[in-house]
Amino acid sequence: MTTLIAAASPAETHANPPPCLLLPLDPFHALVKSLSLVLGPSSGLDSADVDPNDLIALMSIYTSNEKEWARYALADPKRNYTRNLVDEGNGKSNLIVVVWNPGKGSPIHDHANAHCVMKILKGSLKETQYAMPKANGSIQQPPQVTKESTYTENEVTYISDSIGLHKIANGSATEPAVSMHLYTPPHAAHFGFNLYDESTGKRTHIPRAGFYSTHGRALRETSNGVQ
């Protein structure tokens, strides 16, 4: 695999790029650009044709520097976490920064048949994976835990629906955690995703995964979706 991290010329930027991409790129924004290049232009490769290992490798190279991504890390103490959109990858992906309040986490959820790559930018997060429930008529069962892992700053992990479901939690009672997530294709934002009750396994469809902010600017009205 060829490492693609490099500064972009104006001709290579998006038609309507975030203001940060018009400036010389720091390592975080070089990563944003590189991920977009791997996914290709809007008329190029489909996300399904991209090897997720290339995305994992690019995100692993980056060393977290809070000064580079802090403008996107908008938090809200009234929420478990906030989903902050950084880039849309030529329409092929959503790259978001998630701020997890102390002691808070997500419900069990799927990923709408998309790839999900997660990198820890600050703190640590616990991931609990579950087997994908099997269709069994009206019978519902609690999701079965298959794996538990804790990831710390700069570690990267990957999940898709072929692996199963998961939930994410910030185990610290006093400190927030921050993570970066790449979803490709961005199905959850467009078509929704499913939550699963931890006790019964009941599935609930959420029409779309919303954002608390886009490109560093808070939205007036948001949906409190999950990643």
Q: What shape does the CA trace take? A: globular
Count of runs of 4 or more consecutive helical residues: 4
Total strands = 13
Quaternary structure state of the chains depicted: single chain
CATH hierarchy, class: Mainly Beta
Determine the mean pLDDT.
Answer: 86
* Sheet/helix structural class: alpha+beta
- Poorly predicted sequence stretches spanning 5 or more consecutive residues: 1-15, 222-227
Distance between the termini: 28 Å
In the sheet with the most strands, the strands line up as 7-4-9-2-1-12-13
Largest sheet: 7 strands, mixed
Q: How much strand content do the residues show?
A: 25-35%
Order of helices and strands: HHHEEEEEEEEEHEEEE
- How many structural domains does the protein architecture include? 1
The CATH architecture can be given as: Sandwich
CATH topology: Jelly Rolls
Radius of gyration: 17 Å
